[in-house]
Design a protein that fits this description.
By secondary structure, the chain is of the alpha+beta class. It is about 30% helix and about 25% strand. It folds into two domains: about 1-100, no CATH class; about 115-340, no CATH class.
């Protein structure tokens, strides 16, 4: 299916690059139709990948194969119609899965995170009860580090590792997936596979993507010995290498003990799913997952748990959490990970 998408992309590029003088209204309309339906097909393809719906002998895969055939036949109107129905069906399925998700009956209920170590618990908010996996550690005895598979900036075909591999090679006792990136399985990531573009300082004190984040408004978290600092915009941070770790991502879920995120038009954040995070209160650092929640609901849960600050991390197919083994995941291979190591 990915190869067929590439053929459609090549057709679109060829038409788009037609001599400007030779273009006419009909050609412009064809370019617009290809661009619209191709973009829609890419978006749907990536949603189906994340939902694990491709490669199965079912109606979803059959319908998407039909879309590709319609695109190759330049039947854009019908392709768009089938895509629309596919997306509606996917949204219905996701809503059904979210509704059917049940917090285990025997799960302990507590709005307090563990003082140290790992806990799976139910946290009740005014939006309902949520299952939370959370790991706590003291920043006076624990060092937060960010490890990267690449040694320096990487724009395409970047190296990746599993969370377990990051944990193993650093002797870490806990870890979680890191920042948003462009997976190699996404056709829209062609030419920038496995890359990420937000600010980060890894365990070797190497800053990544420094030049293109001078004016960045992406939130970031910084960790040192016994302390953590969360900022609303990366541009507020210099390039100090005296700290233990720096990682930028979004959204900033909790700030100053209050929920800081109520929603957005970003589809990655509005649907229900596993919401990974890194947070802190005083000299305690937390990593974990709020399950079957929107990002706004995840923010409310973490506020209820008393975190002073919390930053959202990558999610979906990247979701992975480690404490003496996988508590969630392993997820896809990733270009960076957040780890807890002993000081």
């Amino acid at each position: 299916m990915e190869k067929e998408l590439e053929v459609t992309k090549a057709d679109f590029t060829a038409i788009k690059e037609t001599d400007q003088v030779k273009r006419n209204d009909a050609l412009q309309e064809e370019i617009s139709n290809i661009q619209k339906t191709y973009s829609g097909a890419l978006s749907t393809y990536e949603k189906l990948l994340d939902a694990g719906k491709l490669g199965k002998a079912d109606k979803v895969s059959e319908d998407f194969a039909k879309v590709l055939k319609l695109l190759s036949d330049k039947n854009y109107a019908t392709a768009s119609s089938v895509l629309s129905e596919l997306n509606k069906g996917l949204e219905t399925t996701q809503a059904k899965v979210a509704t059917e998700f049940k917090v285990p009956m025997n799960l302990p209920e507590s709005s307090q995170p563990p003082t140290s170590g790992y806990s799976r618990q139910k946290v009740n908010t005014d939006s309902g009860g949520f299952m939370v996996d959370i790991i706590s550690a003291d920043l006076n005895s624990t060092r937060v580090i960010v490890d990267t598979a690449s040694e320096s900036d990487c724009g395409n075909d970047c190296p990746v590792l599993s969370l377990g591999e990051y944990v193993s090679r650093n002797g870490a006792f806990a870890g979680i997936n890191g920042s948003f990136f462009c997976p190699s399985t996404y056709p829209s990531c062609a030419g920038k596979t496995n890359s990420f573009d937000t600010l980060l300082m890894n365990k070797d004190k190497k800053y990544f993507n420094s030049d293109n984040n001078v004016y960045s408004v992406v939130p970031a978290a910084i960790f040192g010995s016994g302390w953590a600092r969360f900022i609303g915009r990366s541009l507020e941070w210099g390039r100090d290498t005296g700290v233990d770790a720096v990682i930028a991502n979004y959204p900033l879920l909790v700030s100053g003990g209050q929920s800081n995120f109520s929603g957005s038009d970003d589809g990655k954040l509005t649907g229900r799913g596993s919401r990974t995070f890194i947070g802190a209160k005083d000299s305690t650092v937390y990593i974990g997952i709020v399950h079957n929640a929107t990002s706004a609901e995840g923010a409310k849960v973490l506020q209820t748990m008393g975190l002073h600050n919390a930053l959202g991390l990558d999610q979906g197919g990247s979701t992975a959490l480690w404490y003496g083994g996988y508590k969630a995941g392993p997820g896809r291979q990733i270009p960076n990970a957040i780890l807890f190591v002993r000081r």
